[in-house]
């Protein structure tokens, strides 16, 4: 799956100008203001109206949110209606809803509860189940583990890897955290100020970064932590 050209501009100023390939699972990594959020919004069709987008995709892939692509936001607490039972936030048959919840290892009894009654990890499973209901080809993740505790973060990442193996979707993981990126993704694209700094196999970039910017991100993410802990 190739993004041959993705350009976002505002008043003739080019804010993002990148291209990348998602072979299996790609981490799009950069600090705040690097352009990764604009890239994500561009792919989701969520850019502000005053911004201009140019996008070239593979001829055999089209972006249709809820069909070919699905999105898991950073904060599961704000992704769901707090006054609506979990079961009523799915728009599929009861049989499929139960199958989806089972696939993300969510206890079916939680379907009768409201979002504020669930933990962050449980809510993230709900959001993931809803995202997968359309059987997407590409699952886009916006730092989905940031609001979770370290133990739950590992559990969710392992769950994502298992689901990808079972269902065959590709992953685009947008994050500033090289540690989480390395735990989930095979490849990486590092961006700064809307430009690609370097890209390649995850382990190769982690072990021998060619860009000082990438090295800074690695050092910040892996300080006092073991690689792929």
Key phrases:
single chain; 6-stranded mixed β-sheet; alpha/beta; 229 residues; globular; 3-stranded antiparallel β-sheet; 9 strands; Rossmann fold
How many domains make up the 3D coordinates? 1
CATH architecture: 3-Layer(aba) Sandwich
Alpha plus pi helix count: 7
Mean pLDDT: 90
| Global Rg | 18 Å
- How would you describe the shape? globular
Give the % helix: 25-40%
Count of extended strands: 9
Q: What is the CATH class?
A: Alpha Beta
Tell me the CATH superfamily.
Answer: P-loop containing nucleotide triphosphate hydrolases
Order of helices and strands: EEEHEEHHEHEHEEHH
- Kindly name the structural category: alpha/beta
Strand content: 15-25%
So what's the oligomer here?
A: single chain
- CATH topology name: Rossmann fold
Distance between the termini: 29 Å
Q: For the report, how would you describe the main beta sheet?
A: 6 strands, mixed
Low-confidence stretches: none
**Sheet with the most strands: spatial strand order:** 5-6-7-3-8-9
What do you see in this structure?
Strand 8 and strand 9 form a beta hairpin. The protein is globular and about 50 Å long. The longest helix has 18 residues. Helices cover 32% and strands 25% of the residues. It is built from 7 helices and 9 strands; from the N terminus they run E-E-E-H-E-E-H-H-E-H-E-H-E-E-H-H. The strands form 2 sheets. Strands 5-6-7-3-8-9 form a 6-stranded mixed beta sheet, with helices on both faces. A 3-stranded antiparallel beta sheet has the order 2-1-4, with helices on one face. By secondary structure, the protein is α/β, with parallel strands linked by helices. The protein has one domain: 3-Layer(aba) Sandwich (Rossmann fold), CATH 3.40.50.300.
